[in-house]
Specification:
membrane, two-stranded antiparallel ribbon, 313 residues, 11 helices, transmembrane helix, mainly alpha, 2% strand, DUF6594 domain-containing protein, disordered N terminus, DUF6594
Length: 313
């Protein structure tokens, strides 16, 4: 009784359990569903054919572009060399032969340009794909030679390593971490059950002689808060810096601005800016002064700077 070919005796792959052979079995092997040493999927990039197709389409588009330019020149001449403005709506109503030809040319350009862009985009994507290694190509050839799934003539695409691309799927590293987490959780489950079954012993605070617990008598001082002395020192430093800016900046600008009104405007702007900065920093709220005090300070500052502006003028 003659034996069946080795490709027929391979295990089935997929929902149906029917035997496989040929390209069906090769596809199952590339997917990785047959076990054994893996075979890296690889295909030809067809770089030369892509270039040739793009060259042909480019030549056609250049011809159409020249035809469109010729029709545009005729249209310009008919409109008095551009004296009459162009109107697409008027072209549709007039329905002249020139307008019909240009519409037809534009339709052909749109169709071919769309195909041209698609081919170029797909070519760029395949051009950036990684190339298989020589070892992977040798493994693929060895598998095809031993299994004889497809004809030798159709397996010659592997003889062009410079035109091959690899379709290896990168495994996510997070999968291993998830497996480790699941294993660790499974190992911790019995211990958690044992700890939940035995209640922890109740803890009582040692009581002092007066009957109160030591925790209620002795408390730790709160940490992370500045002392009043530190806050006061910081506030005074900020206030001194603000006063220096409010006085120094206008005096410097007085040498540039000669008139008195301009100097007073600068004083008002600088004073308003400093006041806004002090309010947003929280210094006004921290000093806890009344509104009348701040108004008097602003008036004194304005009067002093007005006198300085008048003296330097």
């Amino acid at each position: 009784m003659p034996q069946a070919a080795p490709s027929i005796l391979q295990p089935a792959y997929g929902a149906d359990k029917s035997p496989m052979s040929g390209y069906q079995l090769l596809a199952a092997k590339l997917v990785g569903g047959l076990g054994g040493p893996p075979v890296t999927p690889m295909y030809r990039r067809f770089e030369a054919l892509n270039h040739r197709l793009l060259l042909y389409m480019q030549a056609d588009l250049v011809d159409l572009e020249n035809e469109l330019r010729t029709l545009d020149t005729k249209d310009t001449m008919e409109r008095g060399y551009g004296v009459v403005p162009a109107s697409r709506r008027h072209e549709r109503w007039a329905n002249s032969a020139l307008a019909q030809q240009r519409t037809e040319i534009l339709g052909q350009i749109g169709y071919k340009l769309c195909q041209y862009n698609k081919v170029m985009t797909s070519f760029v994507k395949t051009h950036d794909m990684p190339a298989p290694s020589l070892a992977e190509i040798h493994e693929y050839k060895t598998y095809l030679g031993n299994s004889r799934l497809i004809a030798d003539e159709e397996a010659k695409f592997l003889d062009l390593p410079e035109d091959l691309v690899s379709l290896v799927r990168e495994e996510l590293p997070i999968a291993e971490e998830l497996v480790a987490d699941v294993g660790g959780t499974t190992a911790m489950a019995p211990r958690l059950v044992e700890e939940a079954a035995v209640p922890p012993p109740s803890r009582k605070e040692p009581e002092s002689e007066g009957g109160h617990s030591s925790a209620s008598i002795k408390r730790r001082p709160a940490q992370g808060y500045d002392s009043p002395e530190t806050l006061l020192s910081t506030s005074l430093s900020q206030l001194a810096l603000a006063m220096f800016v409010a006085v120094f900046v206008p005096v410097v600008t007085f040498a540039i601005i000669p008139d008195f009104a301009g100097r007073i405007t600068v004083v008002a702007l600088v004073g308003a800016s400093v006041g806004t900065a002090l309010t947003q920093s929280g210094l006004v709220r921290l000093l806890d002064r009344g509104a009348l005090d701040w108004i008097l300070c602003a008036a004194a500052y304005g009067a002093t700077m007005a006198v300085v502006a008048w003296i330097l003028g």
